[in-house]
Design brief:
By secondary structure, the protein is mainly alpha-helical. 84% of the residues lie in helices and 0% in strands. It has one domain. The N and C termini lie close together (6 Å).
Length: 68
């Protein structure tokens, strides 16, 4: 597995983890109404969006390099 392929897999895993933590915290906020849960949920979702933007940037930057 090349470094490019590993990087893409790692970004995808990070995006899934960020949205997972964000959704978990937002669901906890619905139950507890603690402001910190809301901020962590919004922050997790924002991190997921930022990682998606970084992934698109990374793919555009290295489009001429193979995955092998």
């Amino acid at each position: 597995m090349s470094l490019k392929a590993f990087h893409i897999v790692f970004i995808i895993a990070s995006v899934l983890l960020s949205f997972g933590v964000g959704s978990l915290e937002l669901s906890r906020y619905q139950e507890t109404r603690v402001a910190m849960d809301l901020w962590f949920g919004v922050g997790g979702c924002a991190a997921g969006v930022g990682l998606i933007a970084y992934g698109v940037y990374f793919l555009k930057k290295l489009k001429n390099i193979s995955y092998l």
